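Checklist before submission:
- one chain only
- standard amino acids only
- sequence pasted in full

Submission:
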Amino acid sequence: MHNPGGLKTDAVRDMSDKAEGNIMKAMATCVSAALVLGLCASASATVLHVPSEYPTIQAGIDAATEGDTVLVADGTYTGDGNRDLDFGGVNMVVMSENGSEVTIIDCEGSASEPHRGFYFHSGEGAASVVQGFTIQGGWAEYGGGINCDNSSPTIQGNTITENAVYRVSWPAGGGIYCHSSSPTIEGNTITGNTAHGADFGAGGGGIYCYMGSPTIKGNTIMGNTAWGEWYFEAGCGGGIYCHSSATIEGNTITGNTAFGGEGPGFGGGIACGTSSAHIEGNTITGNQSNYGGGISCSTSSSPTMVNCILWDDSPHEIHGTPVVTYSDIQGGWPGEGNIDAHPRFVLRTMDDYRLLWGSPCIDAGHPDSLDPDGTRSDMGAHFFDQSKTLVTYATPESHIAHPGEIWRVRYTLVNCYPDSVPARGIVNLAMPGGEPWPGNPLEGPGYGVMPPEFNWHYDREYEVPAITPLGTWGFTWKVGMPGNLFDKDSFTFTVVEPE
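Returned file contents:
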């Protein structure tokens, strides 16, 4: 990969209050295998390897005992033994070696042959962990990707995508279904899932929760759909349908839809049925429904919302009467500490909903809550880290690149202090498998001086050579001075053949 001479670049300096949007497909960061194994190991715990020791994931699960870890190598897993996976009530960790980008469970489900990724129905608890997989292609009546029935596992660091539920009467949970369950759903990307009701509506394109007290935290919930096919059949909760006392915290919920065949759709981002959900620190934006593009609450619900951003949802942000405080609501909403001001995302058009310096959402959350940097909490899912000398954001236009084509990245550098800061920057790539790219650095080392209280943007175009190795690459931008790293930002992207 190289930057040929003469390619167009654009440096943009932003000192005004003019809104500049951003969308970043937040990649769910998996805890490393070493850390998880260390946390979960006991004197008698065993690590079972798939496929080197056991030919299928289910074979590894069946051989595991309490506290064991089933460690799954890179690859795409299909067919019986690699779908409809069942822990059988045994608390264990089932995880990939190297993350969801390279470890795929393809359920290959269909209307005539339904299958899903995992089925928890034997009272499993928090020590039952699913981590680091892409779960795709599921098809079921409930829980196209994962079904939790009277079980409360930990679902962490997965990509749950392109799964579907279909049923004449009220299918639910295109991505994840929870019934009388209190799972922890954390750090996942839940995208492109569908709940489709043929006669009586549907609920929870991404996640459906009925009873229980699930924790839904730090996920990216994007592009999911709930829809009822016939006239006056409702789709509820494109992103999340909550009929429970869920905790919904720190999620980015964007681009979800909920519609009925001829009208009623409720809660493009979140729909609350009989629910006392606590909704805190979420960014809810770009969702659509007939009633409550951001969130819809039934008359029997009593959710509370604090430190959230609801912006650019259609046709309006909120339907119903939730208790909302210290939140940024487009069009305004009654409640202590609420504001109506553009949140100033980094780059909305490229899925990056982090905050620029000068955002009215910074230090505007509930005064009794603090961010990790010790300052008053910010509104939304992404706090601005004021403990750093400079703050870096690297935002790709896509996490997919094709050999022979142009691929774009926006660099954003922020100085939130009243003094100028000199800095050097460098960009390195890691090849599939983790080895450094021989052509490093991709950019730099470069030197500049950041003016005080300044947001700097730089749009860069790269030509991806025709001989670029296929697979998942790592991209890291570091900024600092010799011996002093100010900040870095990283993401992964996958090089695939053009369709």
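Reviewer check: The chain is about 5% helix and 40% strand.
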